[in-house]
Design a protein that fits this description.
Blueprint (H helix, E strand, L loop, with lengths): L1 E3 L5 E3 L4 E3 L24 E5 L5 H6 L7 E6 L2 H13 L5 E5 L2 H8 L5 E7 L17 H10 E11 L2 H13 L4 E4 L16 H8 L5 E7 L2
Parallel strand pairs: 3-6, 4-5, 4-7, 5-6, 7-8
Antiparallel strand pairs: 1-2, 8-10, 9-10
Length: about 220
């Protein structure tokens, strides 16, 4: 379907975008999103909060034998990212419009994701909004369930308080994950960790970035 953004640019998500609202009710059973790709047998990586899709369009061409699913809640960013993936003709990328935590918890099949990317998620700084942060005790259990053996969660943030929150939750989840350093992704530019729009913006502001990798145990 073609959409018109407020700035007048038309975007086409056909073939690359999936709406969570159009998925079968989760009561009907879990979904394996690998079937959304031309080659469903390939390993799957998932990005939570893809924004404009910069990480996906940089990383996916380097790994044509890996499928990448980006999940974005914002309708405008989702449409932009899906259209961008279409214009780059990336057969190994799909975009899902919806709530990543809900999709993972209620729809996503077990043990299918090799790498989970969580970069610069919303810190929700107000105390009453902390429950909206992606990293929670329950979500870490959900991530563990959908990951393959030895699967990895890469986490990067510029927010000091959110970083402390993530460290606290990672410590409580030591029975699920082994914590290791995260040195960045191959498609990032010189001096970058991920190379996303948010990172480049925050880098200009002189912010400090913190990162970790959590490796699935068991």
């Amino acid at each position: 379907m073609t959409h018109r953004l407020s700035r007048g640019k038309q975007t086409d998500t056909q073939g690359y975008g999936i709406a969570q609202s159009e998925l079968p009710p989760f009561e009907e059973g879990r979904i394996d999103p690998r079937v959304w790709f031309e080659r469903p047998q390939l390993p799957l990586q998932l990005e939570i909060g893809s924004g404009k899709g910069t990480f996906l369009v940089q990383q996916a061409p380097r790994y044509p034998d890996v499928n990448f699913l980006g999940i974005e809640r914002s309708p405008e960013f989702y449409r932009y990212a899906a259209d961008r993936v279409r214009r780059h003709a990336l057969p190994n990328v799909r975009m899902l419009h919806g709530d990543a935590v809900e999709f993972i918890r209620f729809w996503c099949a077990d043990e299918i994701v090799e790498v989970l990317h969580l970069y610069f998620s919303d810190p929700w700084p107000k105390t009453r909004h902390h429950k909206r942060r992606v990293v929670q005790d329950a979500t870490l259990k959900d991530f563990h369930r959908i990951m393959t053996a030895g699967g990895e969660l890469h986490l990067v943030t510029d927010h000091e308080v959110l970083w402390a929150w993530c460290e606290e939750h990672a410590t409580r989840a030591e029975h699920l994950f082994e914590r290791r350093p995260f040195d960045g992704v191959e498609s990032a530019g010189e001096g970058e960790i991920v190379g996303s729009n948010f990172e480049r913006k925050y880098q200009q502001e002189g912010r400090v970035f913190r990162a970790m990798t959590l490796v699935k145990r068991g």
